[in-house]
Amino acid sequence: MQEVKTSTELYNKIQKVIDVIDITFFSGKGKEKIPQLVFAINNQCRSCVTAFVQPDALYDKSNNTRLQYMGINPKYLNRNIAEILATICHELCHIYENAFIHIPRGGYHDKCWENLMADCGLTAVILNKSRTAVSTKITEGGEFEKFVDNFIKENGEDYFNIVEYSPAIERQTKVALGLEDDVDDDDKPKADNADIPIKKYNRNKVKYICPKCDSKVWGKAGLHIICGDCECEYEEEVENEEN
After folding, report:
1. DSSP structural state of residue 133
2. CA 157/CA 81 separation, integer angstroms
3. Beta strand 65-72 with 51-60: parallel, antiparallel or unpaired?
4. Is the pLDDT of residue 147 over 90?
5. Average pLDDT value over all residues in the chain
6. Where would you tag: which of 31, 59, 172, 175 has the fewest CB atoms within 10 A of its CB?
7. Domain assignments of the chain as residue spans, ordered by start
8. Global pTM value
9. pLDDT for residue 105 is more than 90
C-alpha cells in the first residue's frame, strides 16, 4: 500500500469539505459555484481567530485570475467536527460574497453575509457593534445540522485526525487507545531549561536600585536609568522565588 503524505492527506480532507459544502449549500442549490481559492494551515493569528479570508490576495498568472485566500488556524482543528465544518462554511460564505456580490470592508460581517449563513442553516452571533467579532452557531433543526449528521455517518467524528500538537492531546489519545494509563508520569522528557528558575517581573513595574546610594525608582522592565546624584546605572531588583 502506497504511503499517503501527511500534508496531502490533510489538505485533501479540507478540499473535500469545501467541495461538499459547495454542492450542498451553493452550486447544488442554484447559486454560483464556490470560486477557486487557495487555503492553508496558518497560525498567523493564533490567539484571535479560528480562520480568516483575504479577498483577491493572490493572482494566477496562467489564466489572469484573482484568487481569494483562506487561512485555517491549526489550533482549532481539535474541536468538535460540527464546529470545524461550521467554521469552514462561515469562511466560504465570505468567499462567495466577495466573488459574486461585493467585498465589504475588512473584518466586517454585513447583512448580506449573514443571509448567506442563514441559507446554510447557520446563525451569526454578532459580538460587537462594529460587527467584526462574530461567532457561528448551528441552527437547531436546520439544514446544517442535518449536513453534519450525514457527514459524520460517512466520515466519522475524527475526520481531522491531524491537529496542533500538545502534550495533553497526545496523552488523551494514548489513554483512549489503551497505550498509557491515566496516571501522572514523572519520567516524561523535560525541556533543557526546565530546572532553571524563571526570572519574574511585576507586569506593571520593576524596582530599580542605585548600587551606590540605594535610592529606588520603579518602571517597566529593561530600562537603563542613571542615578543623577551618583552617576551610576540603576540595577533591577530580583525578587526571591518562594518554594
Report:
1. S
2. 6
3. antiparallel
4. yes
5. 83
6. 59
7. 6-166, 198-236
8. 0.69
9. no
